[in-house]
Design goal:
The protein is an alpha+beta fold and 84 residues long. The chain has one domain. 17% of the residues lie in helices and 21% in strands. A hairpin with a 4-residue loop joins β1 and β2. The longest helix has 14 residues. It is elongated, with a radius of gyration of 23 Å.
Length: 84
Amino acid sequence: MPGCTFRKDKNHWYIQIAIHGTKKTKYIGSTKTEFEAKRMYDKYIRDNDLIDQYKLNYPRSKPLIKKKLWVEIPDQLEIPPSLF
């Protein structure tokens, strides 16, 4: 499981990533459960656009696409009498 390690002495899951090209690691955080640790790792990778460089624990089958919908409303809005 990438990025997550269980510390038995502390009873916590620690999240860190290995920095490519160096022997250094970056500490991200710690949680009580394995599920939260995996989610925290995946969120860090997605938020920092590192998806091409690191493997995710829970890859999405489809990327999330947010679309903005613009609706033009005329100044004079006619409401049919049948709707009253």
